[in-house]
Amino acid sequence: MIDVSPPPRLPVLRVVVAAPRGFCAGVDRAVTIVERAIARYGAPVYVRHEIVHNAHVVNALKLQGAVFVEELDEVPDGVPVVFSAHGVPKAVPVAAAARGLNYLDATCPLVSKVHRQAERLVALGRHILFIGHAGHPEVIGTFGQVPPGSMTLVETLEDAQGVTLADPKNVGFLTQTTLSVDDTAAIVACLQARFPAIAGPKGEDICYATSNRQAAVKLIAPQCDLMLVIGAVNSSNSQRLREVAERAGTRAHLIQSADDIDWAWFDRVATVGVTAGASAPELLVSELMTLLATRFATQVEQVTGAVENVVFKLPRELDA
């Protein structure tokens, strides 16, 4: 006998998707630089460090002919090399030029702006308190713009409360571009209270994309039982999105892709929020939405905060 009974009804799940999310202008520019370099010069094109912190992006570029290395001495002579979006110390392009390597700098222009600010503060005789995370490539790259000893890393509010300076009247501060907006504001306020003469950037160093994505999570997290953030474990901006959701009182998980979902997370969940870090492609969001629809009758809505229309120019030799 043929079973003609209707299929079981799927449980209803409200899915609230944050906007903006995913790729920012700096990431889009960096990925395009690698793709165009491969198209122009042919494979292989070497890339120093992950171009952006996302395994999906890195693996897709590997398939096109990109080879990722950690240090310049791993790059053979006679092949193009791209510097990642996070920026590199000054010594790296100097070494590349000394070897006659054809190099392309994919550093995000907003990171490059911080580099120039660091140079200006040091030229004015100010010691820099740099707010950031130890070991992050953006921090390493920024420290490498100025002479050793010119900067002190401040990671936490406790660091800000305890840091001492030889000359408190000649000090400045700068920040990594992918930090928590709220945490950084507290650290800056502490430094300004302790060192009234401290000089800072004219505008925030935290980039527009980081700020906008955190603000979008703040909009949706209070109405969600669960928040899914798509991004890499080593992605600073993605980790901050998870933290923002948790501080809003929402359970949050950072996943690299839909494959990382644990369906036990959805027990007694009526509304799930979805966002993606600035180095996560929209394809990963689409795959997540497709998978959710196999388990639930999804009711999808998008909540939009800021509207982004920033575009960064490509290097002249690739802009054709």
Folded structure, characterized:
This protein has 320 residues and is an alpha/beta fold. The protein has 3 domains: 12-23 and 208-304, Cobalt-precorrin-4 Transmethylase, domain 1, CATH 3.40.1010; 25-105, Rossmann fold (3-Layer(aba) Sandwich), CATH 3.40.50; 109-194, 4-hydroxy-3-methylbut-2-enyl diphosphate reductase, catalytic domain (Cobalt-precorrin-4 Transmethylase, domain 1, 3-Layer(aba) Sandwich), CATH 3.40.1010.20. The protein is 36% helix and 19% strand. It has helices at residues 25-41, 55-64, 91-98, 109-123, 137-143, 157-162, 181-194, 208-220, 236-247, 282-295, and strands at residues 12-19, 45-48, 66-69, 81-83, 103-105, 127-131, 151-154, 171-175, 226-230, 251-255, 271-276, 297-304. The strands form 3 sheets. Strands 10-9-11-1-12 form a 5-stranded parallel beta sheet, with helices on both faces. The chain has a 4-stranded parallel beta sheet with strand order 3-2-4-5, sandwiched between helices. A 3-stranded parallel beta sheet has the order 7-6-8, sandwiched between helices. Strand 4, helix 3 and strand 5 form a beta-alpha-beta unit. The chain is flat and about 70 Å long. It starts with 11 loop residues before the first strand and ends in a 16-residue tail after the last strand. The mean pLDDT is 95.
Intertermini distance: 66 Å
Per CATH, the superfamily of the largest domain is: 4-hydroxy-3-methylbut-2-enyl diphosphate reductase, catalytic domain
**How many distinct domains?**
3
Largest sheet: 5 strands, parallel
CATH architecture of the largest domain: 3-Layer(aba) Sandwich
- CATH class annotation of the largest domain: Alpha Beta
Q: Helical content, roughly?
A: 25-40%
Put simply, the count of helices is 10
Radius of gyration in whole Å, from Cα?
Answer: 22 Å
Helical/strand content category: alpha/beta
Give the uncertain stretches in residue-range form. none
Q: What is the percentage of strand-forming residues?
A: 15-25%
> What is the fold-level CATH name, i.e. the topology of the largest domain?
Cobalt-precorrin-4 Transmethylase, domain 1
Mean pLDDT: 95
Query: Order of strands side by side in the largest beta sheet?
Result: 10-9-11-1-12
Number of beta-strand segments: 12
Query: What global shape is seen?
Result: flat
H/E order of the elements? Answer: EHEHEEHEHEHEHEHHEHEEHE
